[in-house]
Amino acid sequence: MNTTSELKKVTTRRIIEMKAAKDKITALTAYDYLIARLCDRAGIDIILVGDSVGNVFQGHDTTLPVTLDEMIYHTKAVQKGVKRAMIVVDMPFMSYQTNIDEAFRNAGRIMKETEAGAVKIEGGELFAKTVAKLTANGIPVMGHIGLTPQAIHRFGGYQPRGKDKEEAEQLLKDAKALEDAGAFSIVIEKIPAKLAKQITESVNIPTIGIGGGKYVDGQILVVYDMLGLIEEFNPRFVRRYLNLSDDIYKAFSKYVSDIKAGDFPSDKESY
Ligand code: KIV
Q: Same structural domain for residues 129 and 182?
């Protein structure tokens, strides 16, 4: 548990300083009040309200159906549980791609209605002007390159990215373009560890890896993946810290059998 003196709010400045200090940045996703509260108490630096909410909360196959209103709804719940961590909110598919002004308006809505600390945008060089507009107007931006799930139909699957020379070079350019546009950090997803290291060494802003190996400035995982809540999703980059789906299944089954057997509620559990 954090003591009060440790509860100084994490800011973009702090996140950038952590890279220089070689202090690893810790990040997890959260979509609700209770999980966010636990992340915060455990000392997680960044809580991402990810559009992975579409997969792990809403049950969609991709993140594409997630709306801006849904992101705002989840972030308001997360916000209630957080005192220290920086909250970053994913801008969902089609909330920033059409034009810079729309991206600005939508990012502004997120900041105004949720009091989050930053937004996240998938893409590099292609969205550099959008990132520049947002940051110039006081909206911190986290970039996201590599396997960007909103581009899943273009990629045609969830295979690692940046494995050929051309794509690796583009990813290096993307990271530089994001830094030059004012992004305060970059998520790099599912690329070779060697390339992630090269990207990390080529920019002054922190890189936060998911499936990017250890030579990055921080790590992020989807919270339900690391809690072992999703049995059928088992990529190499996820370390399961719990097997929650087993425990929950057992608890639910026991509840059913206790009721059927007349064991629940007991006299002690009655008035
Ligand atoms: O939406 C999400 O959870 C993400 C992480 C995988 C980085 O973007």
A: yes
What is the 210 CA–ligand 1 centroid distance (Å)?
8
Q: What is the pLDDT of residue 88?
A: 99
Q: Look up residue 123 and give its DSSP letter.
A: B
Nearest of 171, 120, 110 to residue 12 by alpha carbon: 120
Q: Which of 26, 121, 141, 144 to mutate to test the pocket of ligand 1 (most atoms within 8 A of CB)?
A: 144
The answer to whether residues 151 and 131 belong to one domain is yes
Among 24, 7, 21, 182, CA closest to 86: 7
Report the domain count for the chain.
2
Please tell me if the CB atom of residue 222 comes closer than 6 angstroms to any atom of ligand 1. Answer: yes
Clarify whether 189 is annotated catalytic: yes
Given the residues 122, 125, 189, 269, the one annotated as active site: 189
Q: What pLDDT was estimated at residue 210?
A: 98
The pLDDT value recorded for residue 5 is: 43
Do 268 and 143 share a structural domain?
Answer: no
Q: Is 182 left (phi over 0), alpha (psi -120 to 50) or beta?
A: left
Domain span at residue 112 reads 12-240
Residue 193: enclosing H or E segment and its boundaries? helix 193-202
Do residues 138 and 159 share a domain? yes
User: Which ligand 1 atom sits nearest the alpha carbon of residue 149?
Assistant: 8
pLDDT band per the 50, 70, 90 thresholds, residue 4: very low
Per-residue pLDDT of 86-144, as tens digits, reads: 999 999 999 999 999 999 999 999 999 999 999 999 999 999 999 999 999 999 999 99
